[in-house]
Amino acid sequence: MSDEFSVNEKVYPTAEQGLISLQDMLDYFEKRGALRVSDLHIKVGAPPAYRIDGDLVKLKGPKITHDMAKKLIYPFLTKKNQEKLQANFSVDCSYRMGQLQFRINIFQENDGLAAAIRALSLDIPDINDIGFPNNVWEDMVARKHGLILMTGITGAGKSTTIASIINRISQKSACRIMSVEDPIEYILPQNYSIISQREVGKDVPSFNGGLKEMLRQDPDIIFVGEMRDAETISMTLMAAETGHLVFSTLHTRDTTGTVTRILDYFPEGRQAEVRNQLSLGLAYIVSQKLIPKKAGDGRLVAMEILNNNYACANLIRTGKIEQLYSQLQTKTQNRPDEKMITLEKHLTNLVKADKIDLLEAKKWCNNLKTFVDCMQRQ
């Protein structure tokens, strides 16, 4: 981190605590817990704001000035990252503090300097505490090959769910596990496995470059932090086809939209080839959202799960993506080739269990009519 700027310098005047430092702001994450306080936003022209249980809450104090912003943000930046910020107008980095790892994006915007700071606990949740609607995670942990995609909007807990699954595998098996991330979020403990985590821009030049190298390094399990372009998607699908268990993420809101998004990365002339690759290599798509609890003490996961059985693979291969949703609705039995669920069904279960509010569920469902139908049938 920068020697010129200190996390302990008292910079921001609050109404209740007086002058506070960046360190004071980060300490708040530990006091409240990273599961409840997920983000801190710092920008010129507005007070600092935390995201608590999904809602933005501003500190009681003045708008941040250009000088304050620099003193609050530059402690995160090495000299190299300062140069990157000046050249590219944004930079990703990470910061470790106690039992928290912070994922940070610093960028220039209309008013000046800004930062989005995401907190991740170094304590990886037990897989039983994630909130799966069924025991499909047991099948995921037992798999030896295939692609498992975790999807959802930013802040939906995708990285937490993947870290929990990989950690369980590492606790049970002696595997070679390798990741390429931007930046590294959870530090995965070695346990029985040997784990190597590489960060884009620090250990490898790009996701695609890291993935190409990884395939020559004898991995059993691969985690690609995000599939951002056609080349990375192609390499990821190839890795899944050639006998590796591969995890990755996409920013999509549901399972059928995930398949469509992957295909949209490719020109029409290649889509038949990619559909065939995806039908053969895909194992599961889990699309998740974090929903505020009815008790008001945090958030919990609601999931949509697609298990790529023979029928789903055939629909993907023949381009009948819109018919996948009917598989999610009907293939719900506790059998290895089923265990699927729609988001609307999982939300219904959570409402009936009195864990989330009905109005909250309506706000977060993908299809309101389907959700209402689920509520009436159950």
Give an account of the 3D structure.
The chain has 378 residues and is of the alpha/beta class. The chain has 14 helices and 15 strands. The chain has a 7-stranded mixed β-sheet with strand order 11-10-12-13-9-14-15, sandwiched between helices. Strands 5-4-3-8-7-6 form a 6-stranded antiparallel β-sheet. A two-stranded antiparallel sheet has the order 1-2. A hairpin with a 2-residue loop joins strand 6 and strand 7. It is globular and about 60 Å long.
What tags apply to this protein structure?
Rossmann fold, six-stranded antiparallel sheet, seven-stranded mixed sheet, alpha/beta, Beta-Lactamase, 2 domains, 378 residues
Spell out the blueprint of helices and strands.
Blueprint: E1 10-14, E2 18-21, H1 22-32, E3 37-43, E4 49-52, E5 55-58, H2 66-73, H3 79-88, E6 90-97, E7 100-109, E8 112-121, H4 136-142, E9 146-151, H5 158-172, E10 176-181, E11 194-199, H6 207-214, E12 221-224, H7 230-241, E13 245-250, H8 255-264, H9 268-281, E14 282-292, E15 299-307, H10 310-317, H11 324-330, H12 343-352, H13 358-364, H14 368-377
